[in-house]
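Handout, page 2. Input:
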Amino acid sequence: MTKDFECTQESYAREVLREKGLKSTAQRLAVVHVLHTSGKSLSVGEIHDRVKDMLGTTGLATIYRNLEMFEDLGIVNRLHFPDGRHGYVFSQGEHFHHMVCVDCGGVFDFPECPVESFDYASIEKQGFRVKNHFVQLFGQCLKCAEAA
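Output:
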């Protein structure tokens, strides 16, 4: 079964887990595989359903724990939707901002960080040190716009 999960992105996840002293369990690799191959953001329920299809019985709590751990490790990004829902996408530890299509759920990366030009010195003068940031834009992708 392990061979089914081999690809560059999934190898990256294995390496991060190994470096942190964590096991590459079938459930963890299945979550990575599902996110890597989805092409869009997925909810916890969608991830759970797809992992169950692959492995059989897998608890929802296992999915939540793995997603939280993967987010902390930089393997996945959690997207925050305007209606309060969350979705998850494979990250590979890179710094990305996302454009999310509200019609098809497609997730597209910004070509560059729009926050790099911020005046961090003026922010720090106010006693605030920026540790991290994320930007999400919601709209319609070209394919959905053309179909409308």
